[in-house]
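Task 17 of the worksheet. Students: predict the tertiary structure of the chain below and write it out as structure tokens. Keep your answer in the requested format; marks are given for formatting as well as content.
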Amino acid sequence: MKNLLIFGTIFALSACTPIVKKGSTQTLQLPQTNNSNYRLIDQKHNDLLNKGKELVEKGDKKNAIIYYFNPVIKEYERAYAHSSKRIYTARTQAEHDFYAMTASNEGKMAHILSETWSRAYYLKAYTLLELKEFQLAEQNIKKALYLSPSNSKYLSELGRIQHINKSWRKALKSYQLAEKSANFFSPKSLKKQELLHAKRGIGYSYTELKEFKKAEATYNDILKIDSRDQVALKELKYIRGLKKW
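Model answer:
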């Protein structure tokens, strides 16, 4: 609750730290560190993650984890194992500033990195889910969320796992946080996509909880954003069919 109360102050703080503009999207500059090669190392890690993602798409999921995702994770875990600071990863300036404020409110000093480390956990979690290793997938997405607790994509992935486990109330809370995070922190180029993903999860959770009025309202909200959203149209048809009974 304390975090939600300070959402509104983030944008005023965002003006204090440099950003890089790419088209209409404001992206976070990589943090300054004592290692002058940080950007080169970060790019190397992202290249490994991208190669691993390509392997997953080709169906070679286990090798993607073993040879690409795990090595990146291990390098970060080793590098920051003894840090006294609260480590975060962020995609946008607003997210960066929010984490810095959160750590300060908790009496800690934040060290905020690019998204690479948490992305490695996310990709591993996604791949484990494809392998039906549900418990391990949940463990890894929670590691990603420890680094990026307001990342809408990660929150929705946790909601997806909770749906598989039929933990509908937990999933609802995860997707609701994902919706808030999309509105405040997602990159502009991804905001609509991540917002719709979160809202679909909310609607589905309400349906499974048999809270059909809330589900219907959620899907109608989705259609206000995208009138052709096929998931919302299909689910509304299903809900309205239930009313006939």
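Marker's comment: The two ends are 40 Å apart (CA to CA). Confidence is low (pLDDT under 50) at residues 1-34.
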